[in-house]
Amino acid sequence: MRFMVARDGQDTALYVVEGEDAYRVTGRGGMDGTDLYGTIAGGPAQTAAAVEAAKSGAPVPAASLSPALPFNRFGKILCLGLNYVDHVKEGGYEIPSYPAMFIRVPSSMMAAGAPMIKPDCSDRLDYEVELMVIIGRGGRHIREEDALGHVFGYTVFNDGSVRDYQRKTHQWTPGKNFDATGSLGPIIVTPDELPAGAAGLKIQSRLNGQVMQDANTSDMMWPVAKTIATVSEFMTLEPGDLIAMGTPPGVGHARTPPVFMFPGDVVEVEIENICTCSNPVVSEADAAKNEAAA
């Protein structure tokens, strides 16, 4: 199944997407949630009920909807760094024996299609295409062989990174948490429609139509199941938590000369059989003007 949270010009609702059609879930069959959380937390029975409710109404063109973030309130947003060998090498790091991890905050997240904000304090905004895992069933000390049963779905993430701020200290938090730099969605695909662990999928980023990153999710050093098991050693995972799986080689700061994103650019990140997430880049000053005028 393929889900999307989106606006139809009046309100925000959860939809089931089939091909070019979107079937509204919210407001049908007693389903009143406006995001994905209720469907996830209710387990497989709630997921099935959401699909049944959606099919009770007529579809609308999916292209007529404006994507929104999948959650009104985020749970944990955990991100892996250095999960592709060639990306580790291009960044000048040693191959790690344990995954590098950092946290993103909700204010850094944004929907597909929304403007990605280049901060006025830096000219080093970089792109990073990543697989994003959405946890469906929580737990602690999850065994690797059981871990994929805890996944609700997968989507695409652009881990927009402000490189000079990322490198100010050994901790990456500042460069990974500027407002509206982490783009997510718009489609969440359940595991039954993908290979186990979303392995073997082409993963790509494009800047103004030019391919910048081109790899395969099978290249990850810590696949999805191993990552969930590793994370659950030290924290309790809960329904709706997100885990970003790291980016492949080809990022802008490692190129000669470096390539960064500027106002007027359009960045696209795509994973085969999941979706494409596209965002225009705007300046912080222009974003503030647009918000004030809204």
TrEMBL record:
Entry keyword annotation includes Metal-binding: yes
Signal peptide location: none
Keyword Metal-binding set for record: yes
Keywords, ordered alphabetically: Hydrolase, Metal-binding
GO MF term (any one): hydrolase activity
Any single Pfam family the record assigns to this protein: FAA_hydrolase
Fumarylacetoacetase-like C-terminal domain residues: 76-282
InterPro entries tied to this protein: FAH, Fumarylacetoacetase-like_C, Fumarylacetoacetase_C_sf
Domain of life assignment: Bacteria
Any coiled-coil regions, as ranges: none
Family, similarity comment: Belongs to the FAH family.
UniProt protein name: Fumarylacetoacetate hydrolase family protein
